[in-house]
Amino acid sequence: MVEEINIKLFELGPTRSARVRWALLEAGLAFESVQNGVDIFRSQELLNIHPLGKLPAVLINGQSLFESAAIVTAIADLVPDKKLIAAPSSWSRNLHNQWVCFTLSELEPFVQSTEINSMDFVLPAEQHVREIVPQNNMLYKKAATALEKHFSRHDYLVDDQFSVTDIILAYTLCWGQEQKLLDDFANINEYMDRLYNREHCTLTKP
Questions:
Q1: What pLDDT is recorded for position 3?
Q2: Which residue in 17, 115, 174, 206 is deepest, having the highest Cβ count within 10 Å?
Q3: C-alpha radius of gyration, the chain, whole number
Q4: Right CATH number for 2-82 from 2.40.420.20, 3.40.50.2000, 3.40.30.10, 3.30.450.40?
Q5: In degrees, to the nearest 5, what angle opens at C-alpha 161 toward C-alphas 83 and 147?
Q6: CA 1 to CA 39: how far, in whole Å?
Q7: Maximum CA pair distance of the chain?
Q8: Tell me: the pLDDT tens digits for 72-109?
Q9: What are the boundaries of each domain within the chain?
Q10: Closest CA to 181 of 122, 81, 103, 110
Q11: What is the DSSP letter of 50?
């Protein structure tokens, strides 16, 4: 039963934990939030779950899980009646996996690399490789063209209905909007507006 599920979320607003909070809100699941600003990264409780001490991480009924896409998928499977993800073993579930892999391999590495090489939070300025930013921008936009074509025919990623697949992608597209990479992608921006307008969206439109 849903009421028996015990969830503890380790989170910090700007991180990928926003995906997990959004999914939990859409699922209607109660959860305990553990957040203590940047000090959370030094938390032994977090390190016990994530070997690198990164966010997000969760305990679900005492079982640990990290990586936002894995957590969001697990959350959706807890509430099949909410239809937040395609059923296991269905072809639509394969499409969920496809778009998650696409997001995390063809889009996210490039905006993350730009951020790492532009801000002092991860690496000090003297270790930045600013020359890589134009290449990051080019490769991100190249992948975005595939999404632009998809959203010329579809409102959402899978089965033309909202799912956690969209939550995973939306975070990465919001990142691209913040870096001014998607100004010329009208279909993507319309898609993002649909998501920003959802009651439980945890992202802020740049």
A1: 59
A2: 17
A3: 17
A4: 3.40.30.10
A5: 130
A6: 34
A7: 53
A8: 999 999 999 999 999 999 999 999 999 999 999 999 99
A9: 2-82, 91-196
A10: 110
A11: -
158 phi-psi bin (left φ>0, alpha ψ -120 to 50, beta other): beta
Q: Please give the Cα distance from 146 to 203 (Å, whole number).
A: 23
List strand residue ranges (DSSP E) for the chain, in order: 7-10, 32-34, 57-60, 63-66
- Per CATH, which fold does 91-196 belong to? Glutathione S-transferase Yfyf (Class Pi); Chain A, domain 2 (1.20.1050)
The predicted-structure confidence for 109-129, as pLDDT tens digits, reads as follows 999 999 989 887 778 888 888
Tokens of 164: 């956690």
What is the residue whose two structure tokens read 């939070």?
A: 121
User: CA-CA distances (angstroms) from residue 47 to 7, 36, 71?
Assistant: 17, 14, 17
Contact between 138 and 181 (Cβ < 8 Å): no
pLDDT 10s digits, 1-21 = 445 899 999 999 889 999 999
